[in-house]
Records
---
Amino acid sequence: MKDIIEVELKTRKADFCKNKTDILAVGLFSDAGKLDSVNSMLNDKLDGAIQQLLKIGDFKARDRACTIIYGNEKIGAKRIMLVGLGEKKKATLDTIRKAAAVAAKKAVDLKAKTLSLALHNAFGESFDLSAIGQACTEGTYYGSYRYDEYVTESDDGRLGSLAVELIDSDANKVKKLNQGLNTGTIIGKAQSYARTIANRPGNVIYPEKIAGIAKELSRKSKNLSCTIFDDKQLKAKGMGGILAVGSGSVHKPVFIILKNKPSSKKANSVPTIGIVGKAITFDSGGLSLKPAANMDEMKLDKSGGIAILAAMKAIAEMDLPINVYGFIPSAENLPSGSSYRPGDIVTTYNGKTIEVQNTDAEGRIILSDALAYAAKQKCDIIVDMATLTGACMVALGKYMAGLMGNDDELMKQVQKASEESGEKVWPMPSGDEYAEEMKSKIADLKNIGSKWGGACTAAAFLKQFVGESKWAHLDVAGVDLISGPADYSVEGSTGFGVRLLITFLMNMANSK
Ligand code: BES
Ligand code: ZN
Ligand code: ZN
């Protein structure tokens, strides 16, 4: 698949003032007191314009704010973009990731051909320069991303590509920035790839298409192999959950298995990991139909599964020394004469039966087959990601994913990856009380609990299918989508979870 906007990143040794570029982006802390070395040099060449702007108070360097100063004959850049970094004591790597995203978003809006980033200079020695290079790169991909493949007429189009450079006048610093740039490029591109597939609507992307994308990934990679169970194989394997949910659509359900077999033997000394993602290509609710308002957003109900695809793509490109399985159950949840019904009892892969009380609680039904299959494949660790419950959005809003699980150490590892990747999670319970609510009188389980704690009861339901594996569950409902204007990216899929999963897998590959 072609990138929607082609972004190429490089590092280069360059003089900050002489460097020729459409935009030179520099960072500023709101409480810095005085200008850092680069800003102070630029300020001199711009006859004090930066100081003036701050003095008048038009720019307060608030986190993610940005403003433009036009260049003059004394500097090489056509524009200087000041990007606010907020308070210095609050700065994390995510501050620089978001700052790069703000700069890249603005650069695309301004139809710039070239963007030079010198954001790192404001951070001094606070962070490792390679980590800064990675964060800048990820942020640049994030902010420059656009989804417009179906726009044929536009008054205000954009350029097809953007060339970005991370610059510094010190060759040593450039070298360090470049180390992070390579990892950041793989991760950033994987996230854009996920956003594009997720943004595609239900008439374009349906289970068979996701299977095709997975096959293409494996064809292009020597590390990845791909197996697809179609409806006949789903029946033969006893995956009654995926079949039931997909039964209302002309687009048949599938179960996708991607396997990463790295070249290094070292992979066998670290745990085997299964990553599992819900890929409902459109969730109408089925016969328990959803209200019409915002139902279109349910094309993003495949986001968890797509994050798995993108993470598998990235770790294969990195040749990460770790055995990873990607499991993606995919179906379209529609009402029709052949749909599954409220009241139906379905038998899942591990033999457990589910009484369907609401066809809109379909994610947990397809995941039951997938998790049970992952456990059977002897995954030491299973991490699943799903746009599972509106209740998770009620609990946490749109900023953090819910994190549940059955193993404290694993949950800590996921939290660590979350902090490093800037994709936020918050721990939630899923213990026995919640599991109790999911018991059925006429089957082993029912697919909805009481009115309260819906994210927790959903997780307690999933827990029944992971066997002895260590398991973590991420409910990404809400964080999968930017629904209004944002300063660091555009509306639509966020690709949430791609950076988190890759970071988690990189950490696991490096563990002993
Ligand atoms: N895909 C939805 C959850 C969802 C809601 C994701 C809003 C993103 C935004 C899921 O399949 C669903 O419909 N869940 C129901 C469960 C209920 C019937 C127990 C829900 O949350 O309302
Ligand atoms: Zn649903
Ligand atoms: Zn759903």
---
Amino acid sequence: MRVLLVEDEPRLARSLARALREEGYAVDAALAGDDGLHQAESCAYDAIILDVMLPKLDGWQVLERLRRVKTTPVLMLTARDATRDRVRGLDSGADDYLVKPFDLSELLARLRALIRRSAGQGSSEMEVRGLRLDTRARSVSRGGNAVALTAREYSILEYLVLHRGEVVSRTALYEHLFDESDDTLSNLVDVHIFSIRKKLGSDLIVTRRGQGYCVEV
Ligand code: CA
């Protein structure tokens, strides 16, 4: 999953980006509202973490302009615990809120929930074709046997399972799983898919020639 972090306080932005990467997210960061809006419009993010108090454009302005063109889930960070702010945010199309200072584990939980909900998935555990995937523990089992995947393999599988029944193009996988700082080789996704198949069975991920990959339901 790829997230955009729009936060102007450099220390908080750095530590959040690091924590998110440790959780397996691809992360792009913007330090001002106008840059954040531009990135949000030009990339396919799975979620956006948006601070309210920002230079150039504030979080409300970013959200308002973004909502004219995109429905990407947005988690707002506000410094003020004011009802007025929350109402304004919900009216402007924010999907969730967090009041600063916040607990990192709460931010991560809300982010997971936002991404799940936007894919039409209610629970943190998913099951398909004997595969069980726990998005909280980032663990996987098939036929009752736990299988160890690398962080990359897990991310690819999670994305495919979250979008099960759909054909996911290789381009979409790159867009959603790697950020600007990743040095990607064109065949990398295929290498990971090959490895996932070796660990979990070749029948789980179907290749649709010329279109992409699919976990069929
Ligand atoms: Ca700020």
